[in-house]
Amino acid sequence: MKFLLSSIIVLLSALLPGQTSGQENKPLIYKFEMRKMIAAPVWRTTQKSFEEAEALGADYILIHMNTYGGQVDYADSIRTRILNSPIPVLVFVDNQAISAGALISIAADSIYIRPGGSIGAATVVDQTGQASPDKYQSFMRGMMRSTAEAHGKKPVVTNGDTTWVWHRDPDIAQAMVDPRIIIEGIIDTGQVLTLTALEAIKYGFCEGEANSIAGVLEIAGIEEYEMAEFKPSATEKAIQFLVNPAVSGILILLIVGGIYFELQTPGVGFPLMAAITAAVLYFAPLYLEGLTSNWHIIVFIIGLGLIAVEVFAIPGFGVTGVLGIVGVVTGLAFGMVDKIVFNFGPSENGVREVLMGFSIVVGSMLAGIIGSIWLTQKLFSPNKIFGSLALEKVQEVNEGYVSFDTSLQNSLVGTEGTAHTDLRPSGKVSINGQIYDAASEIGYIEKGSAIRVKRQESGQLYVEKIG
Question: Of 165, 194, 229, which marks where a domain is finished?
Answer without folding.
Answer: 229
